[in-house]
User: Fold this.
Amino acid sequence: MTYKAVVIGGGPGGYVAAIRIAQLGGKVAVVEKDKLGGTCLNRGCIPTKSLIAAVDKLKAVEDAAEFGIEVNKPVIDFGKVQARKAEVVEKLVSGINFLFNKNKVELFTGIAKIKAPGVVEVEHNGENRELQCENIVIATGSSPALIKALGYNGSTIITSEEALQLNKVPKSLLIIGAGVIGCEFAHIYGSLGSEITMVETVPSILSIQDKDISRRMHSIFKKKKFNIRTNTTIKKIEEVDGGIKAELENGDILTAEKALISIGRTLNTKNLGLEEVGIEFGDRGQILVNDQMQTNIKGIYAIGDVIMKYQLAHVASAQGIVAAENIMGLESTMDYNAVPSCIFTSPEIASVGMTEQQVKDKGIPVKTGKFNFMANGKALSMGEGEGFVKIVTNAETDVVLGVHIIGPHASDLIAEAALAVKNGLTAKDLATTIHAHPTLAEAIMEAAENVHGLSIHG
Assistant:
């Protein structure tokens, strides 16, 4: 049998690509060495959001008195929290299996290697089999990056993967890296009672976010009593009785029960046979592709983290659809101009398009509008007035170039902003669109009004 395509990797890029190929009439197989769903479903997006949901419930109980509801002091059963997380993950993995059966996608468990264009070898339990195909989609994702000097051991010095599997909340946690992963785990374990210390080599936390967002989140973390050390490098970490000891470059010593390494991701491209078939790589080890997701080798495509465009599950899915449609003879290209990103801290953060600084760096005249949730009726009713919406526009054309939100349900609100950026809408377009009252979305309308100094409540 010759498949229209063999997809290597069953994560949010790979399984979506496979299903779309099947929907369009192609015979397709997926090779996955672990569980369907990849990092996002099994060791990333979903399990962290399950833990964050538990933290949100805890906060609701703790804040109940403010709403006139008296409750007893909450007791955290972390074992049950983890058990529920596992149930959610298992249910979603089962859902992908159901979709595979429904769409007649064949699943092979094992380790894949490309022997030649059109030939994928699958090794499982010591046995090898070859799959013949017209096309190959590489969707193997990434793993937590490690630095040898940081002494990773999987018990006291851990990555996000072990952080999701802890059987008890650590009394103290040193987080190395204050990007998205580091900040989400700071929120999770800080809310559950851990004493949090964060170390970041650059001048600010969440350094790729708009500066106003980064500054506000830093302030919020400081209010939570997190010890934040920016412009700081760790020289070495070692195990000591009761935890770890970290020595900074300036000689300071930090101690904690556990250390979490969250310094980025490394690409899963080794031992796939890519070099042997002549796949071209970029200067960071990423697989090079065009906007149709094609590599330099005819019939071989790559999507998701391995191409290092955006290491986001929803981008991998979009790339998977583009690859699938091109494989099936449709002309489809990726558009990265309106990619939303979300950070599930408290409050949430969501962004799409360019930051104010990026617009300035391009020499585009910039004008911004901001609206604080403190002046939004729905946010105040919810007791969540922290944060703001910031809209970045071209000062000459009024076109919305970026939207940055820190506040309640930011991850949901960003959809409207993404639509505006993708379709080249203006601030006036957003401002003159009637928004329901009372809703959080009114903050977007008011921020758009504020671009022109016309916000009613701002």
The CA atoms of residues 21 and 152 lie 40 Å apart. The domain at 148-263 is CATH 3.50.50.60 (FAD/NAD(P)-binding domain). The mean pLDDT is 96. The two ends are 65 Å apart (CA to CA).
